[in-house]
Amino acid sequence: MTFPQTTAQVLAGRARIASLVSSIRPLRLRTSVFDLTAHRIPTLWTLYRGLLRNSPTNEIRWRMESLFRRDKSMRKAVDVRDALRKYHRWNDIFAAAQQGDTRLQRVLERYSRMISAKKRNDRMAEIVEEEVAWIQKLRNRPILTGSYVRPSFFNGPLPRMKPFPIHVGALIHKRRVRRGKRIEELGVLRDLKDDLAKERDFEAELLRASNGDPSQTQAVFTDHFDDWDRPITSRIHEILQTFKRDDARARMPYPPQMLAAIKAARREKVENKTRELERERRGAVLKRTLLRRRKGPPAHVLATMSAQERHMDKVSRSVSEVGYVGQVKRALGFRLRNPEAWKAEIGRPEEKERLDRMMHEISAENRRRRQRAARAAESVRRAEPS
Length: 386
Fold this sequence. Notes:
By secondary structure, the chain is mainly alpha-helical. The protein folds into four domains: about 35-140, no CATH class; about 150-250; about 295-340, no CATH class; about 350-385. It has 13 helices and two strands; from the N terminus they run H-H-H-H-H-E-E-H-H-H-H-H-H-H-H. The chain is flat. Keywords: Coiled coil.
């Protein structure tokens, strides 16, 4: 089956339609709008400065600055066009009010009062955000633990911190990775250097066998060996210099100021733990208290313990050393901090008479209350219908 050839009239019509369509087809910019000089210079030097210059009050001026900071991240040409139209309209309004338009002046006064209230709210929100960020920073701030991070190929002498700073850990990790890559590269370069030497020797043997006849063998490595070897040797020298710097870093001593700070942190840690233990003994329930309560003997030991032994083990995990806890600890053979502390329960000898009198009074009052409760219960029982 054969198709008729396209006539010249049809081809001319197609060309005319293509020219009409291409003239109305929107062109796509190859450069972003915000990178165009034709957009940046008029926007910053004419529109933005005009808005700031024509702003009737400081509040409106502050609002224009904040809006431009917000909209500077726009990327779509349509959004940029709409924003520019809005700002140009506002600039015309500011200029008209500045020239004496009373209606626009009243409108801008109301707008300024609204912005003033919004400015106070925004400032309060900024204060809250700054405070939250500061609290979060304090919560995650590194604290010296009183121990040392020994110097190595990847880090100098450092104090142990908790939590360890992320950027310092990332630096150590990058150095470790790069040192490994340099070691691999050094092996490859040395192999290349050996290969070059072997190629040079092999080529020299070929030249000797051919009596220097250039038609049989052409010297590539023998006459220009330094040109081949120089870049490899230079790179090997650079890598060896980095290894020397790593060795020097690993041999760095601790500065006296750092040693003093680490020792002070260790003393403060002991003092903090001592104060924490004293608070716990006074009855405060702390994190260490809850952790101690949840502890227990190993599973294979717990399986062989009786109910009484489990109870005594649970009681003995308290920090107290007097009363029932002290009695249990003495029965289990604990070494108490103050073995004579239990004597405080019976009082000093000179207070024995007063304490005995108080004990008899309390016992008598308890008996009287029990008798009163028994009589009340008996009267209630008799009043109930049989």
